[in-house]
């Protein structure tokens, strides 16, 4: 279903305003985080952002993808990641987006934006920031930052693409999550899937993503990208109840 631009904007504003006031308080610092999709043909799932101490993280190249990262990178399901972060005592606050981030040219004419801004807080030793989003038109590609230092004023980061290697890169719509086709403005006889296929399982060791090779349904000139895939601007903002 296509959305009018105003409807998409309203959802984004509602998300920003829904950040719990309880997360603010004595000793807290508040940050504005703006994430921009830099690709020409890859929509991102709504990002999951969190602030935390140096004692935790969500992924690392050369290490096994967690079940939460697998669920996100393969199936666009961020619920396991949000639940794991919510149970982690090293995490201060988790903020989850509500709408996808599409390429700036909006190939699916969805009304969604390529940019989203969020507000998140941190305090004490929670001086680090991470986020993750699926590259929707891939088998198990994702992007994110893992444990960057929160700035004293403002800082820009860039994130690259990763392959969770939990599913073979068939580049077949039948093996890719259903929202892909609508978000990039195509349709096929394949409905797609939001479930993992054991027959396509790989070793699960995270590596840099090589991009789109030109498989059954995906084409490098349309769905490919070059790193970095996202721009992340983190800016310290002040509220009366911040320190």
Molecular structure report:
- The protein has 243 residues and is α+β, with helices and mostly antiparallel strands.
- The chain has one domain: Immunoglobulin-like (Sandwich), CATH 2.60.40.2130.
- It is 16% helix and 27% strand.
- It contains five helices and ten strands; from the N terminus they run H-E-E-H-H-E-E-E-E-E-E-H-E-H-E.
- It has helices at residues 5-17, 67-75, 79-86, 179-184, 220-223, and strands at 28-37, 48-52, 91-96, 115-123, 128-134, 141-149, 154-159, 161-163, 207-208, 230-237.
- The strands form two sheets. It has a six-stranded antiparallel sheet, with helices on one face. Strands 4-1-10-7 form a four-stranded antiparallel sheet.
- The longest helix is centred in the N-terminal third of the chain and has 13 residues, at 5-17.
- The termini are far apart.
- The model is unreliable at 1-25 (pLDDT under 50).
Write the layout of secondary structure elements.
Layout: H1 5-17, E1 28-37, E2 48-52, H2 67-75, H3 79-86, E3 91-96, E4 115-123, E5 128-134, E6 141-149, E7 154-159, E8 161-163, H4 179-184, E9 207-208, H5 220-223, E10 230-237
Antiparallel strand pairs: 1-4, 1-10, 2-3, 2-5, 5-6, 6-8, 7-10, 8-9
